[in-house]
Every structure is written in structure tokens, then in C-alpha cells.
Amino acid sequence: MDQLLQTSQRRKLKRVGLLVGLALIAAAVLTIARSGSIASQAWQHLSHASPILFAALLGCIALITLCTTLSMLILTNRTRPPIRVEFREMLALICASTLGNFIPLQPGLIGRIAFHHQVHGIAVPYSVLIAIQSTALTGFAALWIGAGLAITHATQLSWIAAILSPMLLVPFLRNPTAREFAAAFFIRIFETCVWALRIHISFHLIGQDIDASAALALACIANAANTIPFVGNGLGIREWSVGFLAPLIAGVPLVDALAAELVGRIAEIIFFIPAGLAAWPMLHKRLRVHRTLQSGEVIDSVSLL
What we know:
This protein has helices at residues 2-5, 8-34, 37-47, 51-76, 87-102, 109-120, 124-154, 160-164, 176-205, 212-226, 237-249, 254-304. The chain is mainly alpha-helical. Helix 11 runs antiparallel to helix 12 (254-304). The protein starts with a helix and ends with a helix. 38% of the residues are buried.
């Protein structure tokens, strides 16, 4: 499995994914630039927006990161025998790997798996399984809320019912494993709601107000795009997915939707550059201390002989 994760084929796929993502971002920027008056109107709204809105957008990204950390922590600490990864360590790993996914040739997910293997002794196949479970829960949460929104729309119920619908699972959570997965799933549901707020703010910043149900539906689309393999953080895929579907879901033109998503992407990069850079020294120190302790244990064992 170690060899599988380090193959040149995987590295090539990540490079191709990055190039595709950058090409899609460039195409989005070009589309907005060619729109003329629409682009100038969006920029005018953006330049006159309240700083509080920008702070709220960054706050949403921070809260989404905390939700991702908690969900991963629950899945990781399910190991048998139990391994207790600290919250701040997992938060640092999430921040560092997310930033790594924006940078060519950086390991991202693979780096996180390697760290857990070296520091906590978590087998690589198990770490891969955790990553798959996390991605599956994200996709399942998006699918669940998306289906809930379709049902509430057809039955003329409030969109709030779609958010509360996961509570229907509670009677079936009769064993610890089910409860652990449910806890991670409920966090992903909440995370999707925060994504909806993030999208609502991004659209408001460029002068397009959308209602809560439309923002929630677009959040499901954005989260689904984030699960696409070999394209770090859904780069480009997310912008165009939301852009193409925003006219149908929210009545917002493609160009405006692309602009709103690019605003969200820029805020994401602004957040993760300092967060990721701050995380790397802490993780490096943790890894160095672990290796030092291991070396000490080896020396002690030899001296006993």
C-alpha cells in the first residue's frame, strides 16, 4: 500500500488534476473579464462591501475547517487499540494538507497519512480507509440534504425540514460504531449548512442575494465537487459546477456565480496560507520529538542487552 500511494502514476494524476483545475480557474476569470458591464457591477459591489462581510466569510471558512477536523478526529480515534490524536494536532494536519493541495507536488492527503503512520502507528491501509470514509460522509451529507431539499420543495415544506431530517436516524443508532459514524455524519451536515452561509455571503458580496434553500442546494453541489479525486480542494471543478447550476437553482447568471465562487476561493486561500504555514512547524516539531523518543527507546533497549 505504501508503494501504491507513492507511485509516479499517482503523482502524474495529481499534476494533471492541478493543471486542469488551474485551466478551469483561468477560463472562469476569462469568462468574467469578457462579460463587461456584469463584471464591473460585481466589482463595484465587492469594492463597497462591508469589512464585516469579509470577516464573516473568513469565519465561515474557519468553522468549516473546525467541522472537518472534528469529523476526521472521530473517524481516526475509532482505531483499535484506541489511538488518541489531539484536536490541535488534527487541526494542524487539516490546515497543512489543505494548503498542500493548492501547491504543486505537495503531498496533501498523503502527507497526513504518512504523519499518522510515523507518529501514531496507524497502518497506512487504515488511514486510507479513514480518508475514504470521510469523503463518503461528505458526499452522503450533500446527497442527503439535496434529496431533502427536493422533497421539501415538492411537498411545500420548509427547507429547515431538510436540515433536521438526519434526526430520523437517531432511533437506529443502537451500537457504538453506528453512533460514531452518525456523529461524524451530523458534523458533516452542520458543515454543509456553514457552506450554505459561506455561499450566501459570497453571492451577496458581488450583489446577488439568494435565499437560504438555494444557498443550501449550491452548498451540496460545492461539497460534491470537493470530493473529486486528484483535483485538490475541487479547484476549478467547484467554480464551474456552481456556475452552471446557479441559474437553474438561484436564478443567478453564470458569470455572477463564477465571480461569487472566485471570491470564496480567494478567501479560502487567504485563510489557509497563514493557517497552513503556522501548522507545518508544529507538525515538524511533533515528528522530530517522536523520532527522538524512538531513538531513545532503541538506545535503552540496546543498553539492557
